[in-house]
Please model this.
Amino acid sequence: RSSDLNFGPGDQILAYADAHGMRLRAHTLLWHGSAPSWLDPLSPDGLRIAVADHIRAVVGHYRGRVRAWDVVNEAVADDGSGLRDTVFRRGLGDGYIADAFRLAREADPGALLFYNDYNGEGLSAKSNRIYELVRDLKAAGVPIDGVGLQMHVSANGRPSDASVASNMRRLADLGLTVSITEMDVKVNGVAGSQQARLDAQRTAYRAVVGLCVAEPRCEGVT
Model:
């Protein structure tokens, strides 16, 4: 029930953003990694009601005050073979993603709605499946505005610049906005001194930020 929800910590973050002229991106409405265990035994109807109540309550609470939501997070299997096996997919079928976006749009028509995932930054089997997912959502008239690329990479093991640029462009060609949402650059695999590791890290950050700057529909880096 919405009366049972504690918005205190989120409200504190929003108050800080408001006080400092910041626009807030909110993360995330549906993610198997934070799904409570009491969802597991629910019937499909019970799960559908719980998901809808959650999205309406949370997005509705922040209606008009949050710029963007990561609506569904990490729903694609790591090998790109299809959708990940989650409590949401088991109970509601593949359509749970589209339903979540529709519920979020209804709860706040002014917020931008994103699909967010990792290891789909460059061209790969997983990024192909993410592309197909959001392409099909768009074709079906689902209200999706963009894709978040988490960009957890290593300084000496990240996708090539050309690969990331091509992936951003094909998403942009669907009419979607692209955001780099959770970028970090691991350096423990870089040989040499601490300065060498920092230099490699700086090079990676500079390259990826440059790719976003060069893509007109890439809106920013977190």
Remarks:
- Residues 89 and 96 are 7 Å apart (CA to CA).
